[in-house]
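To assess whether ligand presence alters the predicted conformation, the chain was also submitted together with flavin mononucleotide. Input:
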Amino acid sequence: MSISERKIDHLSIVSKEKVEAKMQTTWLEYVRLIHKASPDISFDEVDTSVTFLGSRFSAPLMIDSMTGGAEEAKEINRKLAEAASSLGIGMGVGSQRSALKNPELADTFSVVRETAPDMFVMANVGGAQIAAGMSVDDIKKVVDMVKANALAVHLNPLQELIQPEGDTNFRGIVPKINEIVKAVQVPVIVKEVGAGISREMAIELHMSGVGAINVSGVGGTSWAVVEGLRAKKAGNREKFELSETFAEWGIPTAASILEVRSVSKIPLIASGGIRSGLDIARAISLGADISAMALPVMKAVLKGGSEGAKKLLSKSILEYRSALFLTGSRTTSELKRKRRILLGPLGEWARSVGIQ
Ligand SMILES: Cc1cc2nc3c(=O)[nH]c(=O)nc-3n(C[C@H](O)[C@H](O)[C@H](O)COP(=O)(O)O)c2cc1C
């Protein structure tokens, strides 16, 4: 199966099947922000805007890395770019490996930059491809392809493990990321795809000079489930059974934010199961700087085009603004200083990494 066919397969599965973790949540529901009965501010003065990696966002939200590499994906990327740029937020494109192999696919990614010349855009490559020898020149090409503001490198060992055609050699990636950090002009963001980043991993990444971490923890899209469904369709029983055992594997998004924050002040993106503006506020109160959403935006754009995506994202921004208002926070930095309570398993996890 070609990379383009696989990308289309992914889109078809995520739009039709249930691909989110069934039992394991993000644990963001264990974060209680404190209601302020007299917030002492007017709703109109609440300012949701933030600066992240030198770019201004109207709210701490972006569309996480998703697609490109197939003709259908070009139209989706165009619509996502329209939605994100009209709201003053940013977005990532999906893995650009296909366009390196097949240059006529480059416009399925660059359409984002053409649609939104001033938007914050993240290029995207896979850690497994870097381990397999993707050259620094190739990496520079993917950054140039979308005139990226940052380069996202995804680490997805669970997905590759279950994927029938997966690439499971993850040897020596961090030193290679360090070479890339030195060679490219834009910040490098290392991200998971739904299994989270631990404190040990965060220390290694921090030492290798990455510009930001996107935790992308458990609680949202499960790539074990997505690839398990593909394995089942292909008659690969062993991989399907493996996917069932590991469907909920990883670090919940809320715990992953605490893990990274316990060891580093690195710019931090919360993703993996972010489903509302209240989730964004909870993630920020744990130490994230900005958030990113993938699956719900994909579903909204497939159903309702750029207007559908815009509606979903605007709803989350309104919810975020409301959470700032109700906690008596004029800005995101004020929210970060507000008291919050960590309940249940998240409270225990917080204590285990020395955070109260
Ligand atoms: C359809 C789809 C395609 C994705 N493709 C990529 C990709 O190419 N590169 C990447 O880094 N992450 C990819 N992701 C992972 C997301 O960026 C994100 O980390 C993950 O889905 C968790 O967020 P969510 O729960 O909001 O979906 C993809 C997600 C979806 C739903």
